[in-house]
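Take our chain:
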Amino acid sequence: MLKKCLRNRTFVISSLVLLPILIVAAVGPWILPHDPLEIHPNLVLKPAMPGYPFGTDEFGRDILSRLILGIRPSLTVAIGSTLLALTAGLILGITAGYFRGAAVKWIMRAVDIILCFPPILLALMVVGFWGAGIENLIIIIGIVYAPHFARIAYSSTLQVKKLEFVESELSLGASHTRVLFGCILPNIMSPLIIQISLTVAAAILLESGLSFLGLGVVPPEPSWGQMIGQSRGYISLNPMYAIWPSLCLGITILSINLLGDSLRDILDPKLHRS
């Protein structure tokens, strides 16, 4: 598996781009050049200058420091919500695919109802009731994307359940727990791993969109989407204020999506592109 990954150029390049981002997110508070919350009235909307290579925002705060610290809430929300969506969707999808009957009727119809709503619209509705904040965003985005995992787990379970080795386990009297976790789950993880990478990217984008609208990360804690939203009124005065967080966000999402594409090629040889 590792050799296949290293032979895939897209996987290697996207990993090399994402690795520094993850490292900066982990050690960010210890490498900040300035306090990202400290206000300097005499340095408002300054362009790049010594000590402030990315310039300052409308309150004179260092943009570079806020970019470094803004990685953490985006990744925290993305990873937390993806794990929540994976857990909930996997349980629901396997249950519906394995037990069939009433489980399919209730679980998959509920999944279909949630999938009818655009993610951003559903998230806006729930945030309006629950309020903003990292914890609420994790729960909300996790609920929004859980149906995607449920559909994949459901269809994959239906396929694996028909295979001979699963039917032989059932005929020998194996318990449902043994069949589910010993036979079915290991054989449906490939599409779920690909969906994880896609969901992380989508969750970052959704969190950034909510923060852009002022419904995500609560100020003064920075996030990339929030910085893009705040910079709208100052583009003519300091255009780099909007460009830097937009560039960071775009590179991160692009790298995660490319990583997902490469994992699809690695885990499913039928989809390998020459």
